[in-house]
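Holo prediction — zinc ion.
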Amino acid sequence: MSSLHIYNSLTRNKDLFEPLMPGVVSMYVCGPTVYGHSHLGHAKSYVSFDVVVRWLRHLGFKVRYVQNITDVGHLTDDADEGEDKIQRQASKEMVDPMEIAQAYTRSYFEDMDRLGVLRPNIAPTATGHIPEQIAIIERLIDKGHAYESNGNIYFSVESFPGYGKLSGRTDQAAVQSGGRVEQRSDKRSPSDFALWKRAEPGHIMKWPSPWGVGYPGWHVECSAMAMKYLGETIDIHGGGMENKFPHHDCEIAQAEAATGKPFVRFWMHNNMVTVDGVKMGKSLGNFITLKELFGTFDPMVIRFFILQSHYRSPLDFSNAAIKASQSGLEKLHETARRLLETRPGSGTLDVGSFVRKTEEALNDDFNTPVAISVIFEFAKALNGALDRNEGLSADAAAEAMAYLETFAGKVLGILRSREELEAGEAGDGGETLADVISVVLELRKDARARKDFAMSDAIRDLLLAKGIELKDTREGTTWTKKRG
Ligand SMILES: [Zn+2]
């Protein structure tokens, strides 16, 4: 078998992957800031890293996958200014910031579960690791890499010559990018970044520290939690490419200045989502939450749609593109169902050559679009074999099913279980069902607008009796079909 190569953002090269400790992979991915429902951008990131974890496990590695939850201290402006995003949302919804953090953490995992994203082994929260963050900051102060100013602690970028090595930004560029908001700053240099911020009056999420009451900067939580659970040098660190600078360069600076050891061996960055060619963002008004999407599309279709492009390529969302994915996936499931129902014959199929090609694609920096195209070539060859009079021998059919269940199922997570296939879940008009339900939901919305809650509840209960569960959220009503 070919060996695994990963594009390393640090070396800007596809490097041969070997973990530091034979057989064991330590992996950290920056998790969500929990102040709103997850959107398609989150789905792309976490589905991509889910396939990374699944493929590493398939190769026989024991993977410890840590993904944090940022539930404090992430300001609206990355240059250490502005409001706390969670606190801002809390005052909007008139609840405690911790209620916001917990509600959207649950919402995040709910969405990821539906996308088939396996839970990380450890999902540490920033608020649960304040002492660890304080300890790193103390270490940095002791070593002369950080200093106190008016109850704020800053990392001195000048003290760490490797600063900016990941993004390739020079100190000068960093100075310029941070320069605009720095007139009244208490930093020694504009490119220095906050490790700890003094809590201003009215700031809710705050903790005592050796420097007074305050809260940690965003960057330091990842260094602290990654090192706590994975050690001082970790194999893989992932995140969105927009986080290369400043977030990941700051993580490197803090960790390496504190330990004197390389922090991360392989940096992986996924690309962003665009909508009809335009970058997706809350402020641009083209923002799609997953809960909204799940009202129209099966989560597995969304997962398949994401994996049809490479993680380092942008993903362009459009209804037409996702509908094309839907019919493609239904065809694959149709083929798998046909295989399950076929009577044993005498024909053969060269499954091995497809296995090798799929492995090669995934070993080539997790090239899921190529792996998917090989799986579809296989489905075509399989249908051809099933069309022939002699059919497929029982052995060949078992081998073909094992191929689909391994690569489309276990590794990519885009194949339904045997039970679901046999029950005819796939290809039986998932799209028609979505259309019908959207009509029913319109009627229910009308009923609610007329305050006819008896009708609205009756619709909900009748659908539930048929295995369709409705959920009323702030964004509208979503539905899920219970399986099994
Ligand atoms: Zn991070």
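READOUT: Residues 430-481 form one domain.
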